[in-house]
Predict the 3D structure of the following.
Amino acid sequence: MAKDQMTPIERLSAYSRGKSIDRLPCVPIVGNTAARVIGVKVSELPANGKLLAQAQIGAYRRFGYDIIRIFTDLYGQAEAMGAVIRYPKDETAYLDQPALTDISQIDRLSPANPYQDGNLPQQLEAMRIAVEEVGKEVVVTGALTAPFTNASFLIGAENLTRLVAKNPEAVHRLCRLSLETSLNYAKAIIDAGCTPSLTDPMSSATIISPKKFEEFSLPYLQQLIEYIHSRGKSVTLHICGKTAKIWELMANAGADCISIDNAASLTEAKGQIGNRLRLMGNVKPSEVMLQGSQADVRLAVLGGVREAHDNPKGYIVASGCSLPTETPFANIDAMLDAVREIGYPITEEKLNDLEQRWST
């Protein structure tokens, strides 16, 4: 099996400059699967920066992928603003109670201080440790929940949906408060030596219309991304589900790379916005990475490469979203091994040969 000839930072830097690389960058989006790598429970990670760093560094060293993402769940910023989050012993956290039961309580809210509030200080500690230990060889990112999605955790998704229709100014107030927290946290992430990685599932076209996205999500994404760019960092934006109707708006927000969910088409994204930004995705996290065979994984990787390797602004092989906790290690290995065997430069002849071999 082919071995890596470059460090992740060397590979990404060369790829961005159009220089020779050994293989395409590859990012199986490892979240709480990292707990399995070091044999701890998922619930042990969010409030323990040292352990979280150990888990994510261990996962990176175990699999050899190209970007570390310090992440446990989407609720850190909302919890720091007063939401109640539950941490099952060995499952991903979930929202138990929003920060507000009614929008009339909004004056109770204030932006979070990432150095004091909730588990954000522990997340930052994990980032600092990861940067110190492996930051010279691999990019370390910190997960940052975008303002509109965070607003849904402050008031509850159903309530936010009603407010979008009945009280838009209240939604904007929630988004402005969330933006202030996001900006505070983005600054802290960058000061820790990391790059913020934006996630905004509530902005999906599966949930809100493109018109509502443009009104309630886009302005806040633009301000957040503008700040991150002002600090010299690029931005990857992930929005779950079907996003084709908002790709142009995601590009308008200023994203340098968009992470494509498996519900969307890499081919269509390439044709629509590939000349504006890099694409990343979109191997199915559950159907392929969790439940599929190693052969299924290899063929899915090959399919994505066939679709998007010639994207004008580049392509990163990745899962369509964070991997389920119980994703088999062998399948993550298969993703990286497939990318290594495909190599670079990529030719149609080699893709055809590999497809024939992996299909038998």
User: Anything to note?
Assistant: The radius of gyration is 20 Å. The chain is about 50% helix and 10% strand.
